[in-house]
Structures are given as structure tokens and as C-alpha cells.
Amino acid sequence: MPKTETYTLSMGPQHPSTHGVLQVRLDLDGENILKATPCMGYLHRGIEKLLESRTYIQGVPYTDRLDYVSSMNNNLGYCRAVEELAQIEVPERAEYIRVIVAELNRIASHLVFIGSLANDLGAVTGMIYAFRDREKILDLFDLVCGARMTFHYIRVGGVSADLPAGFKEKCEEFLKVLPQFMQEYEDILTGNEILQHRLIGTSRMTKEQALSHNMTGPNIRAVGIPFDIRKVDGYGVYPKFEFDVPVGENGDNWDRYRVRYQEIYESAKIIRQALDGLPEGDIMAKFPKVLRPPKGEVFSRTEGTRGELGFYIVSDGSTKPYRVHIRRPSFINLQGLDDMCRGMLIGDSVAAFSAIDPLMGEVDC
């Protein structure tokens, strides 16, 4: 047997497959990965400190810039934390609208995942199809709030404006054609033997490994653990809706892909129920314009598109938070990259990273 020598290869931070500025230091023996170390911090913008220097109301737009393909869900997580701290009761109609836009954003985010995964594995057509369909959701958001990426639509106490005329019909039209889009992904991607070869059986994780890294969202559900905060905590009006929590069996990249794929159907199911049961009433709670929550602290969590999104806020009784810390699911989930890459080849690290589905703006915060 010839003697080999290990070496270190730097993947990134300028690399198209890292979806942003991330460096992964790969310790290699030939092309076999011995260790994968994610090196973060290249996109740090100090959002937690920015939130501490703004009033509670002014802080909402900064959450748009965390997971910037799931801004509605970020707004929802932050606003729920402030509402719990200030004991603000959100009107039921606003809660329903929040669910509708949050689940639309979940679908849009999962479409970005499908397209990015396909592109990273060489199937550029898959990305074109996924982004084509995501545009229809962005058009709905444009109709609702005039923005397509950073929305600032969900506000502390409710939402900024009621659903406009024609939104319900356009949303129902989107839900009607969604199964057709999904069938196209089945034909183009799911049934593709190259995609299957790259994903099935690769980067397996056990339940114990995933739990040891505190992974959440589709990544924890892919190993067979049905942990979904919409079910576990039942926040907002989610307990009123019927939906399933898709789980995987083998904890491999294929399961991570399939779980998100199935979650699109479940989100569509929730949106249909919310549209059908949308009550009349106010869209914004009544509370003082100058918000001064009582002294105290709160940790509020929601099911973001990438896992448990938590906001820890400390109030000193003033108009600004004394301390804010954000539990970013992308940052936490990325800790599992090493276990997913060990024993794999260099090319498999790209599939592993893409299957985790991290968003670098949320990783570095």
C-alpha cells in the first residue's frame, strides 16, 4: 500500500457552492474528507446590536435581513417575542393573515432550496424551474406590501395592511397550479438517477448525532424526529389547522430533500384552510405608540423555514431592548456539516452543504 499524506484544502469563502461568504476547511486524504470545519463570520453585520440601539418597532426591518429569502418568518418570530414581552394580544384576523404569508414564504424558501440543490449538483434546469415558480409567490407579496424580498409586512401587534382586493383569488390560483409544478420537479429531479446517486445514502446522520448538534427544522425531521414547533408549541392559530409533519427514515441527503419537498404540500394545505376560515375583524392590536414593555425577559421561538428561530429579549423598561440574542437555525444546523462530510469525497461536501440549506445572512447575523 502506498503511503499517503493528509493536506488541508480551503473551500471558499469565494465559492459558488457555499451560497455566500463561508469558508469550509477540508482536511483530506486524497479526495476523502477526514474533517470539515466551517469557518464563519465573513458576513457579520451586528444585527443584534443594531436591534439594541433601535426602538422595538424600529427593529422589525432588521429581521428581514437575517434569512433574506424567508423575511416574513423572521418578522413573525421577532414580533411574537415583543408581543409576549409587552403582553400585546394580536387580533384573530391578523393571526390568520400571518399564517398565510408565513407559509407562502416557507414554500418560496423550499423552492430556493430545491433550485439551489439542483444547481449545485449540475442540474441548472432545476433551478430555472424552481425560481420560475417562486416568482408567483413574490408577485403575491408584491401585491400585499409592495416588496419582493424584504417585506416589513408583519408588524408588532398585527400586520401593516389588510389583504388587498384580488389577493385571495390569486393565491387560490397559485395553490391550484402548485401540484403541476411539483410534478415537474418529480419528472426532472426526483426521478433523475444522477440526483439519486448523489443524494441517496450520502451524508447519513443518526438521531443522536443530529440531537447532539441541536439541529432543528427539516434537518432534524430528516433523521426521523417529528419536531415541529408549530405542533409542539402550537403558537398563534396553528392549532386550528390540520397538517402533517413529514419525516425521513435514513437521515441522508435524500431524506433532507424529500422532507422539504413534502413540506411544500403541507404548507399549501395550511394556506387553503386559512383562506377558507379567514375571519373578519381588526388587523392591528391597540397599544401605545411609544412602546415600553415592563422590565423582564422573554425567549420566544417559532418554526422558521430552516428550523427553530428564537428571539431572546431583555427589557429594562425603556423604549429600546437592553439585550437581544437571536437563535439562528442556519448557524446551529451548520454545526452538523463535519459529521455529514466525514468519509465522503470532496464533491459530496457540496451536496451535504446544500442539503443543510443554510442562509449565510442568518448564520453570521
What does this structure look like?
There is one protein chain. The chain has helices at residues 47-52, 60-64, 71-86, 92-120, 124-145, 167-190, 193-199, 207-212, 218-221, 229-232, 253-276, 329-333, 337-341, 346-356, 360-364; strands at residues 7-11, 23-29, 32-39, 154-155, 158-159, 296-304, 307-315, 323-327. It is α+β, with helices and mostly antiparallel strands. The strands form 3 sheets. It has a 3-stranded antiparallel sheet with strand order 1-2-3. It is globular. It has 15 helices and 8 strands. It has one domain (7-364): Cytochrome-c3 Hydrogenase, chain B (Orthogonal Bundle), CATH 1.10.645. The mean pLDDT is 94. Helix 3 packs antiparallel against helix 4 and helix 4 packs antiparallel against helix 5 (124-145).
Number of E-type strands = 8
Within the CATH hierarchy, at the fold level, what is the topology? Answer: Cytochrome-c3 Hydrogenase, chain B
CATH class: Mainly Alpha
The secondary structure category is alpha+beta
Percent strand: 5-15%
Low-confidence stretches: none
Give the C-alpha Rg.
21 Å
Query: How are the strands ordered across the major sheet?
Result: 1-2-3
Distance between the termini: 47 Å
User: Residue-averaged pLDDT, rounded?
Assistant: 94
Largest sheet: number of strands, sense, barrel closure = 3 strands, antiparallel
Strand and helix order: EEEHHHHHEEHHHHHHEEEHHHH
CATH superfamily, please? Answer: Cytochrome-c3 Hydrogenase, chain B
